[in-house]
# Entry
Amino acid sequence: MKRIIVGISGASGTIYGVRLLEALSRIDDVETHLIISRGARVTMEHETSMTPDSVERLAHVIHSPDNLAACVSSGSFKTDGMVVAPCSMKSLSMIAYSIDDNLLIRAADVILKERRKLILVVRETPLHLGHLRQMTRVTEMGGIILPPVPSFYHAPETLDDIVNQSIGKILDQLGIDHNLFRRWTGK
# Structure
């Protein structure tokens, strides 16, 4: 059984966290632990037709972002990784400097200190030097920066096709098989 923490921060693009949970919920041997930030709750209602309650139903375990004593705040709680999708620049910066004032950031910090896989789906454009330095800092600590940059070799026809390709790239990083997009096989 794989145990994955999914964090949804307040950046635009909450559909990435929701779609990741939907994909993981269809896999029998994956247990998901969900943390939705306060900002994500607001953004989700602006960007999607889903409510935080409906998104929480996609996860196995829900954690309050205020509960710094949750199981995912300790390295002794074994996980196979964490994805923050989307990851705001605020969350990226807090992770880069270990400012553990909420559970989403503390869980990411634990993942890094335990040398587990941390994937940050950063959502901002254009980027300034401060953003790039925070991404470099997290990468140097072992994190993976995976912005939702669409590819077009799989001939997407809908917005869902574009979102699913990014989710597929996340699942590839976690070592989870999927068929969310057509892979490039060459000419």
